[in-house]
Amino acid sequence: MRYIGYLLVILITVVPSVAQQAQTYRAPRLNGHPDLNGIWQAMNTANWDLLDHPAQPGPVWQTGAIGAVPAGQSVVEGGEIPYKPEALKKKQENFAKRMTEDPEAKCYMPGIPRATYMPYPFQIVQSQRDMLFVYEYATANRLVNMGPPQKAGSDTWMGMSNGRWEGETLVIDVTGLNGLAWFDRAGDWASDRLHVVERYTRTGPDHLQYEATVEDPNVFTRPWKISMTLYRKVEKNAQILEFKCVPFAEELLYGQFKKK
Amino acid sequence: MKTSLRFIIFLAAILFALAPITMDGQTRGGAKPWTPPKTPWGDPDIQGLWPGQDMVGTPLERDRSLGTRAFLTDEEFSKRVAFAEEQQEIDTADLVSRNPRIARGGRFVTCEEDPNGCRNGVRIGPPNYWDERGKPTKQASLIMDPPDGRLPPLTPEAQKLQADRAAARKARPCATQPGGCHDSWEDESLWDRCITRGLVGSVLPNGYNTGNQIVQSPGYVVFRNEMIHEARVIPVDGRAHPNASIRTWMGSSRGHWEGSTLVVETTNFLPGIPVANTPTSDGLRVVERFTPVDPDTLTYQLTVEDPKTWTKPWTVSFPLKRSKDYAVYEYACHEGNYYMYNALSGARSEEKKK
């Protein structure tokens, strides 16, 4: 009987670490840290809706199946965003007005974490000092400060990013977000008290595990977490192309003031 | 024979790269040429913050009276310094009360002298202190070639295009309205539309938010401009440009190292992007050279070639000084473009009054 107890203790302590070890991939190093350089892209439908969703028509019937919403599984752990009741109402209002109010429709900067899973690639530019994220969408970009943490000077769309290494993982603490960006086309939102902690971990030569913990006491009852895999664009000619979308949004934004 | 010719070309290239410094009269006489440190992967390391604001006061084109003289005499320079001091005074006074004087082209003018800059005796546009003024330099103009420091003549083709455009503008009914045409967003500049200032406009020292930052990674150099938040990713791995049908506002950039100098060639521009107030063609090609000359100075050189627009290429050259504490702010221009709403809705409401 006693042996079984010992065995259990051994199993409990050893098994998870063995399992973890099996998953642990040691990334190539750049100046002693995991090398995250590359062009990456999510391959999911989180930008349509972070939560589980069936296939459905898009916001404009005129474009037929072009622009329809592909089905997708939740990237939110637990499958639920813990909104406060009044905040959930605002999400529903956002959704109803998404054709004109989604910042993506207006070609506004995507904010964090949405920039990560927009249907466009982004490039991590990692040097021995700085870390720059260059997003194809709207030429958004952000420098990740790898030095002593700095306070955000003012609230911005892309926020203030302070990065640090935790072993295999790049951890980025993002504050100073202005609360105007959305999480997805479903109207998920946060206020200017949004605080995002991102974790980037290489799990293979061409895979990057992405996690983001989201907290905002104005909008959510507790912190919540999204996670997804990012894929390296492995084509030889892969590159960030230019997607300056302002000209594509001007009719939507200013059409009412155009001379008839 | 071949080798010696190559050596001469190499020598000439070095002399050409150093010319702006030696001409400055500040030659580090006899000093060893400075070699920058290397990145861990072996490229010259030119990373850092290189804001352009110091050169804001240096005009693009040289005053004709200076001829081929690229640098000011001490006396001319002291005038520039005196002007900068007067400017400082006016900018400071401007903080207290809006001064109707306007800083234009190296002097201050009143509302009477420049009615276009004012409405009802009050200056429109941003206050004087809004703008970066730069530090007075002896460099007479940013353009260093042609030798007279001025833009070369336009081609006959471009002259005709300009004249046609001007005539078409003049023929529009809105052309006679005070404030000009605001029928649609397309009447506004690419900058006012928050699309871009273009590659050349993004790096020429101008106005405000002149931050530049270089970040490198294996195979890449990224030149990041604060203005409009551009991040030009420049492969330095020898790959080809994308197909010429993929045209962009900032063009397609490809770089390579010549010693410690980063040479970047950019093509595939969309036609019509203004450079030095002139719309360029689809034949625009820009070559930039970033040469580290000491730990805190990059000589930046940019050559504009557009055989459909200018009769010959022209080159600007100026030093970019390293800053340790320049803060690059997020330039969320489009996201807060009240100008566009106000210009268009204002023009519509003016029409209703008639």
What does this structure look like?
The complex is a heterodimer of chains A (260) and B (354). Helices cover 18% and strands 25% of the residues of chain A. Chain A has 4 helices and 11 strands. Chain A is α+β, with helices and mostly antiparallel strands. The longest helix of chain A has 22 residues, at 2-23. Chain A has helices spanning 2-23, 85-96, 98-101, 246-254; strands at residues 29-30, 33-34, 38-42, 122-126, 131-135, 141-145, 160-166, 169-175, 195-204, 207-215, 224-232. The model of chain A is unreliable at 15-19 (pLDDT under 50). Chain A has one domain. Chain B has 354 residues and is of the alpha+beta class. Chain B folds into 2 domains: 33-58 and 144-354, no CATH class; 72-138, no CATH class. Helix content of chain B is 23%, strand content 22%. Chain B has helices spanning 2-23, 74-96, 156-171, 198-203, 338-353; strands spanning 48-49, 102-104, 107-109, 118-119, 122-123, 143-145, 212-217, 220-225, 230-235, 252-258, 261-267, 274-275, 278-279, 285-294, 297-305, 314-321. Chain B has a 6-stranded antiparallel beta sheet with strand order 6-16-15-14-11-10, covered by helices on one side. A 4-stranded antiparallel beta sheet of chain B has the order 1-7-8-9, with no helix packed on it. Chain B starts with a helix and ends with a helix. Classes of the chains: A alpha+beta (260), B alpha+beta (354). The interface between A and B is large, with 42 and 46 residues.
